[in-house]
Structures are given as C-alpha cells and as structure tokens.
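Example for tutorial group B:
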C-alpha cells in the first residue's frame, strides 16, 4: 500500500499504543504498518486491551506490523475515516455506511451480535421512562447510533431531548454507565454489547429500563487503497481468527460480537434511517 502519508501521526499513535503495552513495532516499520482503526465506543485503554489479540494474530498471519488505534471522539474518528487514515476499519453500522458511500470503503464482514440500544438506570432508579422527566441522561457521543436511536425513542415517549430531559455527553459508553452507577446522572443510553464489557461491580448496580429495536452489528471494512485480492486475504484472516482460534472466540464472546460473516448490502441499508441526522450533525460546528 506504499509509504504511510501520515508519519508524524503514526509516530504519535505508536507512542500512545506502547504506553498501553501494545504490540512492539520494529524500527522503520512505519512503511508497511497496518493500522486497525476501532471506533471509540470504549475507553482507549479498554479498546486496546480488548482487541490486542486481534492485532497480534494479524501481525503474525499477514507478516507485517500491526497497530491498533482509535480516536478521542466519534467526530474525529469519522474525519480520519473519510481521509482514508485507517487501512482496516472496525466501526458502527451507520459509520460504516458513511465510509462506504463517501470514502469508498469496502465492507468485508459484519459481527453476528446485533447492536441493541438500551436505556439504563441505577438498580434503585426510576421504574418508567416518564420518571426521567427533568433529569439528566448520559450519552456516549452525539453521533453514536445509540444516541440517535435513543433520542428518537425518548421523543416518542414524550420526552424531548434538550427540553424535557438533558443529554450529557460523556467520554465513552463505560463512562456514561459509571456515571449512572455513581448517581451522577439518572440514566444512560448505551448498547447491550457494551454491558458485556463493563466490570461486574458496575453492572450489578445497573438495570435496563427500556430496550430499542436492534440494529446491524459492528462492521469490518477495508480502505479502497487495498487491491481486491488483498482485501479478500484480509477478510479470510479475520474469519480464521474469529472462528478458528481460542483468542478469537474469546474476543467474539467478550465483545458481544459472537461471530463474523460476510457483510451484505442489507446490513448497511438497515441504518439508512439514521443517515440524514448523522450527516446533519456532522455539518454542525463543534
């Protein structure tokens, strides 16, 4: 794929990854380093720890250095995506649709575990959605799929975001859930797959108040810079990891992805309902 055009950014990410105890990358390997961009649905440390087995497998299987990276927030992650900064992308379905339509990314695989948005409260919190009126609901990011779906759910329940309930942006899903457990906010919008990744000490203090319709799961995409034959090799390696290694099966279970299968056009068309609002939010100033 040629020399990486963002050497300074690569070195900055490398230092951050090594600080988290990630894969060591040989000196001079930036030329052929495969960056795997994971959208920031957990804290950076949690993402790097969770997906480290995937990075280690790809590095061995593809015989090239691999660096797992994320971004400070969803907007920056999308901006980097649309600039083709991630050769391999693991992202939410509505972000995958945007990457496909606006940046030419090729959907390779989709995870088997659906993304189901949920409204979570403390174990002793409100017994109905109406009980959230006048209170604060934490969200992971204004662009997140659970935020878009959850905001629509609240409006249908008679609670207008920004008027009847206050939406407070948190650094991540896990931060939003921690805020609920600590009583800092009344509720949080998140996803069931995220609930599988948080410590039991936190989850035991939470309760799901409402569930929203499930959406397509996480999507793996290849940058259009990949030749088709190499993209197929990459997809085969991901399938091998997920289905034929103990580390892969462990990651699939721990992340709620369950399994991987070839991505279909219907997987991404299912999120079209959220695309106008996503594009509208992206046009807004930060």
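The residue assignment follows.
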């Amino acid at each position: 794929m040629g020399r990486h055009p963002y050497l300074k950014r690569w070195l900055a990410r490398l230092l951050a990854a090594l600080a988290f105890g990630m894969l060591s990358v040989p000196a001079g390997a930036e030329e052929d380093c495969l960056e795997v961009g994971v959208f920031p649905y957990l804290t950076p440390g949690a993402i790097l720890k969770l997906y480290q087995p995937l990075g280690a497998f790809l590095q061995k299987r593809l015989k090239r250095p691999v660096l797992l990276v994320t971004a400070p927030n969803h907007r920056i992650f999308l901006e980097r995506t649309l600039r083709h900064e991630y050769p391999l992308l693991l992202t939410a379905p509505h972000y995958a649709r945007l990457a496909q339509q606006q940046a030419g990314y090729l959907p390779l695989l989709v995870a088997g575990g659906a993304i189901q948005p949920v409204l979570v409260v403390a174990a002793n919190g409100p017994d109905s959605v109406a009980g959230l009126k006048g209170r604060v609901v934490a969200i992971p990011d204004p662009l997140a799929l659970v935020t878009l779906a959850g905001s629509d759910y609240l409006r249908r329940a008679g609670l207008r975001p920004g008027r009847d309930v206050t939406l407070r942006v948190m650094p991540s899903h896990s931060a939003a859930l921690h805020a609920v457990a600590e009583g800092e906010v009344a509720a949080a919008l998140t996803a069931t797959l995220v609930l599988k990744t948080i410590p039991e000490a936190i989850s035991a203090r939470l309760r799901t108040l409402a569930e929203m319709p499930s959406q397509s799961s996480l999507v793996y995409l290849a940058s259009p810079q990949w030749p088709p034959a190499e993209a197929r090799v990459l997809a085969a390696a991901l399938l091998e990891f997920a289905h034929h290694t103990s580390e892969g099966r462990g990651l699939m279970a721990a992340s709620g992805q369950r399994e991987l299968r070839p991505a279909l056009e219907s997987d991404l068309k299912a999120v079209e309902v959220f695309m106008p609002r996503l594009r509208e939010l992206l046009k807004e100033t930060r």
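The two ends are 33 Å apart (CA to CA). Compare this with the pattern of hydrophobic and polar residues in the output above.
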